[in-house]
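User: Could you check the structure of this?
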Amino acid sequence: MAALATTGLSVGWIWTKADAVVPVALPSGGKSIETVSPSVKPSETPTPFGKVLGTEMVASNNDSMPIMSSKWGNTDERAGLWGGAAIWLTIHTNYDGKGGSWGNFTAFGQLPPDIPYKNTPAGLKEAAVQVGSRAIVNLYDKNAKLMPGTTHKVITVNGHTGHEIVAKVIVKVPKLPETFSTVMIAVIDRGDGTADVSVADIAGSTPAWQNVWRYKVSQITINK
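Assistant: Sure, the predicted structure tokens are below.
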């Protein structure tokens, strides 16, 4: 997979799926990602795991989100979600001549407990920024740059308020036709002081999957 950062917090997306880790070269221009407060310390509690069961991604709290389609396969959750599961769709196979692949990634899980959260519009927005930033660092690089035009909007999922962020990450990889990746983050309030999260990394060449992701987010089931 892509170079994984073990520290720092920032919205991560397309990466090589080769066994060997290959750092991604990024241009110097663009907007820097936002990061969490340095005073926030990662939890020492082991992260629980979610599962892909049939047509559902099931988080460790038993909330679920439908998979994007049967074309997408089960993969490891690397976006930094709490108790999450993830799926993958290959877009470019062996693009680097070394057996690596490049594709779309979607994850579903819970907001990590070490990210402060308040169930207010401002709290949902801030949580979305923080978990999105963490995903970029985990799946991409702490120096990743965003294109101008990041959008925020309030969403509602089955009566639960939420916040959506859409951003474009600049991509610069030799022999790869992609120039950007569209990263989408949805944070949904569960009504009990916690939140569910979905992160999608959609290749710039496959924009149709963006609306599929939004539709699947609208079908998230919250179990209490």
